[in-house]
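Render this sequence as a predicted structure.
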Amino acid sequence: MRIFINNVDSYVGKALSADLREVAGQKNRIFGTFTKADADVDTAVLENLGVTRVVSRSDKKKYLADVLSCTLIVYDLHSAVIEDVEMILKHLKLASLERDTVFVLISSVKVWAKTLARAQDARVPLNDEEDEEEEEDEDDETKPKQPKPTKPRTLTDADLDRRLPTLACEPWKYVETLALALNSKDKLRTHVLWSGVLYGNEELTFNEMFKAAWLSQETHHLLHPGSNFIPCIHVRDVARLVRIVAADDQVGPHLIAVDNSTLTQMEIVQGIVDQMSHKWKVPVKTHRNSELVQG
């Protein structure tokens, strides 16, 4: 199988190249563009990533032909140029495909960031086991009643048309719509994968937190109130999900990819400090005056 990975040397691209070299027991040929200029691509990097061919964007006609020659095409919006993705999708729409093709667009849960939960089910119990224990304690009149811990309801496919992105991610939603609209095209299967906050391998989002904790620098803080839940996912899990999507034509066209763990901002930051540094209580920074207060 020929696989095209846009920006194969990017954070997500490296994880994709590692997990897509073999799909369903079949070894694949990986084609990919690089974030650097073609002349600056290191041969050693190519070998390490397992890239068979570097696809150049300089010749538009050849670039489009190389991309469409692949059975699996993967674009990651974290590193892609929106206009480039839009061009590929519009070309796919008009092209006469010679083989069954799978197009995977990796997006972000930030496209859902401003989605308002329906009032009737905005919050759900945080933990079923805790709820059972609380029900048992209700008969004990000596214990004061505590409010049940809750979390926001998990968004599902049913909320797809209601998703509202952050301002920066509005163009992402636009290309998602273009990609999903192509599912009606013959010999083309498209998928949008919304990843949680990415971590692992080279580490991007949490890198400075880990570094400061390792150096015992008490620079960490929480944005008030710190109780917001942050959906995360390991970058290699995203790559493995793409591999599953490529091999299984029964997978749905839209997937929200997050860890099973349900952690708040406070649990993540305090956890990093507790595990990597001497234990100290991470303070909370208020939004209005940026003052640090003890949470």
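Summary. The first strand starts at residue 2 and ends at 5. The first helix runs from residue 11 to 19.
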